[in-house]
UniProtKB/TrEMBL annotation:
It comes from Candidatus Oscillibacter excrementigallinarum. PANTHER family: ACYL-COENZYME A THIOESTERASE PAAI. This is Thioesterase domain-containing protein. InterPro entries: Acyl-CoA_thioesterase_PaaI, HotDog_dom_sf. GO terms for molecular function: acyl-CoA hydrolase activity.
Length: 134
């Protein structure tokens, strides 16, 4: 098993990912893809997914992409634009790609799409890579 598969398997067992129903599907240096199926429990009173669903999915993708370098990373800032809403049973995929690295600071661009390829959300995460190896 190669390094990224081992790392992906380790991260998929992390409490934060498992607790949210998020699964890392692909990893390579500076890139990650994660998936989650929208459940009834993810909905607000107006029957649309709570925005925290999109945040957790994007954060997981960016964290996994940052972790691909072998070190833990902390979110410093983020911005996202919600373009469409998902629905129950939609399979959401978040792709995160490293756009910039300045010493320990890394900037990631992410996109969240549904199973039809509809762009649901996009934005950026800025992360501080720690000296703590994974």
């Amino acid at each position: 098993m190669d390094y990224y598969n081992c790392l992906r398997n380790q991260l998929n067992c992390e409490y934060a990912f498992c607790n949210q129903g998020i699964c890392i599907k692909k990893m390579q240096e500076g890139y990650a893809q994660v998936e989650k199926t929208v459940k009834k429990e993810d909905l607000d009173i107006d029957r649309t997914p709570n925005n925290s669903l999109y945040f957790h999915l994007a954060n997981a993708a960016c964290t996994a992409a940052a972790a691909s370098h072998g070190y833990n990373a902390e979110t410093v800032s983020f911005s996202f634009t919600l373009l469409n809403n998902a629905h129950v049973d939609d399979r959401l995929t978040a792709n995160a790609r490293e756009m910039l690295q300045l010493q320990s600071i890394r900037v990631f661009d992410f996109k969240i799409t549904d199973q039809k390829g509809t762009l649901i959300c996009n934005g950026t995460f800025t992360m501080n890579q720690t000296c703590v190896a994974i």
